[in-house]
Amino acid sequence: MPSRRRTLLKVIILGDSGVGKTSLMNQYVNRKFSNQYKATIGADFLTKEVQFEDRLFTLQIWDTAGQERFQSLGVAFYRGADCCVLVYDVNSMKSFDNLNNWREEFLIQASPSDPENFPFVVLGNKVDVDGGNSRVVSEKKARAWCASKGNIPYFETSAKEGINVEEAFQCIAKNALKSGEEEEIYLPDTIDVGTSSQPRSTGCEC
User: Fold this and answer.
1) Start-to-end C-alpha separation, the chain
2) In terms of Cα–Cα distance, which of 154, 99, 156 is closest to 121?
3) Is the backbone of residue 144 left (phi > 0), alpha (psi -120 to 50) or beta?
4) Which stretches of 76-175 are assigned E, i.e. beta strand?
5) CA angle 44, 165, 99 (to 5 degrees)
6) CA 59 to chain centre
7) Rounded distance, CA 75 to CA 146, Å?
8) CATH for 6-185?
9) Can you give the pLDDT of all 206 residues of the chain as single tens digits?
10) Is residue 90 classed as helix, strand or coil in its secondary structure?
11) With contact defined as beta carbons under 8 Å apart, do 20 and 159 qualify?
């Protein structure tokens, strides 16, 4: 009989304002997309339950504002993160160039115990715009950057069309598992029947 323990996994989404962070989160959690752009003020989060190998996990996805004046809010929201998602717009070189700043900012604010191995995932969003004709950041360039930072998993997405969103967040959840197993929430009125100590594969084939 599988354990009914539930683990909370905290995921932070970072990137410049307007790259589609909120849209990606809403597409994944609610299967919805809005053409009306509304800047996130401060931070917001959505949750979604996911299941891996008979275990239930609650993915808590934090969407932080891209505007610099809200970055001072960072510390409280970054701490305890299990995975960080870096998002840029494939049609904006500036948003791609800023990925390094967002990554460094996260490592400073979150202070993970093992920064060298902390799981990041990079999403190149808005691949649907203008049929791909207006993109300025090539997939090759993005993958080279990810490789230089320790082979970060990379996905090209469209929050509007739902392209690769589900696959990307499955990878994000698997990567979060690598650092998020210790924070378990026990469901009420259940008996812990014990779990196998067998190691579980959480590798992400992306």
Assistant:
1) 31
2) 154
3) alpha
4) 83-89, 120-125, 154-156
5) 65
6) 10
7) 24
8) 3.40.50.300
9) 444 566 889 999 999 989 999 999 999 998 877 765 555 555 577 889 888 777 888 999 988 765 554 455 557 778 889 999 999 999 999 999 999 999 998 999 899 999 999 999 999 999 999 999 999 999 999 999 999 999 999 999 999 999 999 999 999 999 998 765 544 444 444 444 444 334 333 445 44
10) coil
11) yes
CA 206 – CA 191 distance, rounded (Å): 36
3-state class (DSSP) for residue 96 = helix
Beta-carbon contacts of 110 under 8 Å, excluding residues fewer than 6 positions away, are 12, 78, 79, 80, 81, 84, 118
Q: Residue 41: count other Cβ atoms within 10 Å of its Cβ.
A: 10
The rounded distance, in Å, linking the Cα atoms of 85 and 21 is 9
Bridging pattern class, strands 55-64 and 6-14? parallel
Compute the CA torsion angle 107, 12, 188, 49 (nearest 10 deg): -140
pLDDT attached to residue 7: 82
pLDDT for 43: 59
Domain parsing of the chain, residue ranges: 6-185
Q: Give the residue from 55, 56, 112, 65 showing the smallest Cα distance to 84.
A: 112
E strands, the chain, are 6-14, 43-52, 55-64, 83-89, 120-125, 154-156, 184-185
The residue type at 184 = E
